[in-house]
Structures are given as C-alpha cells and as structure tokens.
Amino acid sequence: VQLQASGGGLVEAGGSLRLSCKAPRMITSTFNPKAMAWYRQAPGKERELVALITSTFSTNYTDSVKGRFTISRDNSKKTVYLQMNNLKPEDTAVYLCHDGGNYWGQGTLVTVSS
Predict the structure, then answer these.
(1) 103 contact partners, CB below 8 Å, separation of at least 6
(2) DSSP character for 45?
(3) Residue 110 exposed, middle or buried by CB count within 10 Å (0-12, 13-18, 19+)
(4) Tell me: the pLDDT tens digits for 86-97?
(5) Which has the least CB within 10 A, 33, 43, 69, 77?
C-alpha cells in the first residue's frame, strides 16, 4: 500500500476531525515533489477534489470547504493532513488521498450527523 488514509469517524455537525494520509513506502525524494490531494465521494455522487497542496505548500480548496478545511503536509513524515472544522452533514463521504499520479489511499469514512 503506497498511501494509507486514516482519521475518519462519526461526528456531530459543528465538530472536527483530522485526516492523515501516510506514504510509508515512498522515499522522501519521491514524496516531496508531489502535489498531494484529498478527494471525497458521497453515495450516489461523483468523486470531487476537496483540497490540494503542492510541493511548495501552495493550497487550493473547493468552494464548499473554504474557511473550514485546512490541508497541510509534513515531508519529514511523508504525511498529508486534512483538518476539518465546523463539519456539516453534507461533508459526509469517503475521503481519499491521491498523489496526483498512480496512487490512491484506501479511503476513510467521514459521517456527520445533524
């Protein structure tokens, strides 16, 4: 497994979760130049890009999560994070990390109750 996602769970609306995506088998020189991203897929919906962070730490977010979610990376740990605050029921989905190339994490389920 190239990417290992974790941190999902059940939370009430307004709550917070932090997702992690580790790349234990990548060497640092492979991980560091990658733009890493979090996607999500809700039941019956298409997969959508939630947030992206480049190798130079620039970030982009889909409009619906701006101001609530923060993507970050720790290259020394080969890990990307997604801090999710003020969660809403519409954030309920399977969240997947992606390295912009061939690899996807296995997905972690986030369920937000109203």
Answers:
(1) 2, 3, 23
(2) S
(3) buried
(4) 999 999 999 999
(5) 43
Classify 85 as helix, strand or coil: coil
Tokens of 109: 């389920």
Cα(107)–Cα(56) distance, integer angstroms: 25
Instruction: Give the amino acid at 84.
Output: M
The span from the CA of 43 to the CA of 30, in Å, is 33
Please report, for the chain, how many H helices and E strands are present, in that order.
1, 10
Q: Which residues are CB-contacts of 48 (< 8 A; sequence separation ≥ 6)?
A: 39, 40, 41, 62
What's CA 12's distance to the chain center, in Å? 19
Res 33: pLDDT: 92
